[in-house]
Amino acid sequence: MSEYLFIRPNLSMPRDYCWFAYDDVSKNIISSGHSDTVEGLAQTNTGSPERSVVLLYPASACIYIKISFPGKLKKSAYNSLLYVIEDDLAEDVESFSVRVLEKQGNDYSVLIYRHSQLRSLEKALELLGLSVDIIVPDVLTLPLPDKNQTEFTGYVMKFNDVWLVRNGKNSGMEVQEEWLPFLAGSGDSEKKFISLSELSADMKDKWQESLVESVETVIAEGAIKNKLNLSSKQRKKNYQIKFVRSWAKVAVLVILMFALWFVNMSYRTKSIMQETMDYRNQQRNLFKQISNSNGNVNDPVGEMKRLIENSSPIGTDEGFVDLSKILVPYVSSKKNIEMVSLKFDRSRKTFTLQFLADGSFDKDAFINDLNPDFSGNFTDSKPSRDRMLNTVQLRRLK
Asked: How far apart are alpha carbons 37 and 391 in whole angstroms?
């Protein structure tokens, strides 16, 4: 958008509304005028309703001050700075709002304004079809002296029968022309300003003039470039930006969690696939032992069990069967021994054998006869009927 409608109200009595239309491309003032009432502004934008509306808030309705506040403050708590200067305001602090212009340590350069007065004016213009896009204090649209003009305090300019004074980066005021000599000071406290408007004869000797063709153009360019915006539209945009940023953080967190979950699942899937492949390779090796050729066999499962039985892996049911075939005949061949039970403890890989024997039974000879297949020891021996019930634990040695 290249065209802007600027409105500057005079909030003191009698009320007056100065306005002008500005083209940012050609840098020209399209039209300008005055209105005694806010209703009279309704026709100012009828020809170009797409123009952005800029409200130049008067310095007389603002307070520029530097406040020292110990500790840290969140942006949402900036209004608490008002209680530091509550006595100076001489009004209810709830009527004011604070905008921090600059912060250096515990020092806050702030702009204080009556929020109800500003919002009422903004609402009145909106009802006339003039939706305000930008609200900027009028004095902050003036330029600042550059680094080579250190002897000058700031700029002054006459606009709408008052003099706008910018006496610092974050401060300014408006004064009537007769008060300019008091602004200059005297003696050691004398202050020099650069005037963008023609000065009276007695002030020309005190201050430097740097006249401009159009003060409206200076204000317009300063307002457009200014980053400060007090409009409710901007506040809504800020809330929307905060909302979007908050959800963006949530989205990033969700994406990060999903990425970590995906990496974890990928690792687990890869591990399972590797285990599956290892298992399949083992199965292939077993089936290769079943049949050396590539052809099929009639009973691969039975053949596999036969191979397992022959290999006698300790800790398997097949291994138990195989070892039982070795142990049971040996025990049964002994005279005066009656086998009672044979249990296999898979976790310990041991046999627990119970049998009945007479009193002349030689335990050491029984254990020695099991070598080199088993080692063992008797864990219990107690009477049972007219014989002894012996319990022995055996472990496979090979």
From this structure: 116
Give CA separation, 93 vs 13, 101, 230, 346, in Å.
24, 19, 19, 84
Domain 312-396 architecture: 2-Layer Sandwich (3.30)
pLDDT of 317 above 70: no
Q: Which positions ≥6 away from 395 have C-beta within 8 Å?
A: 349, 350, 351, 374, 375, 376
Q: Report the pLDDT averaged over residues 252-279.
A: 83
User: How many whole angstroms separate alpha carbon 59 and alpha carbon 139?
Assistant: 6
* Alpha carbons 105 and 72: distance in angstroms, whole number: 9
Q: Which residue has the tokens 């004011």?
A: 96
pLDDT on residue 311: 47
Please give the structure tokens belonging to residue 270.
């890869």
Report the mean per-residue pLDDT for the chain.
80
Q: Reduced to 3 states, what is the DSSP secondary structure of residue 53?
A: strand
Residue 42 in tokens: 């309704």
pLDDT of residue 315: 45
* Strands laid side by side in the 107-114 sheet: 62-68, 107-114, 96-104
Alpha helices in 161-231 (DSSP H): 180-184, 201-204, 215-225
For the chain, which residues make up each domain, given as ranges? 3-147+214-230, 232-299, 312-396
Is beta strand 350-357 parallel, antiparallel or unpaired with respect to 387-396? antiparallel
Mean pLDDT of 224-236: 81
pTM given for the model? 0.59
According to the model, what pLDDT value does residue 20 have?
A: 92
| 16 touches 66 (CB < 8 A) | no
- Longest Cα–Cα distance of the chain, Å, equals 144
Residues 52/3, Cβ–Cβ less than 8 Å:
yes
CA atoms within 13 A on the CB side of 160: 25
Residue 394's pLDDT band (boundaries 50, 70, 90)?
A: confident
b/e sequence 99-127, b meaning 16+ C-beta within 10 Å: eebeeeeeebbbbbbbeeebeebbeebee
Rounded mean pLDDT, 190-210: 87
Amino acid identity at 192: K
Span of 1-5, 120-124, 140-144 with lowest mean pLDDT: 1-5
CB 195 within 8 A of CB 5: no
Fold of the CATH domain 3-147+214-230:
Nucleotidyltransferase; domain 5 (3.30.420)
The pair of three-digit structure tokens given for residue 138, joined into one six-digit string:
């009028």
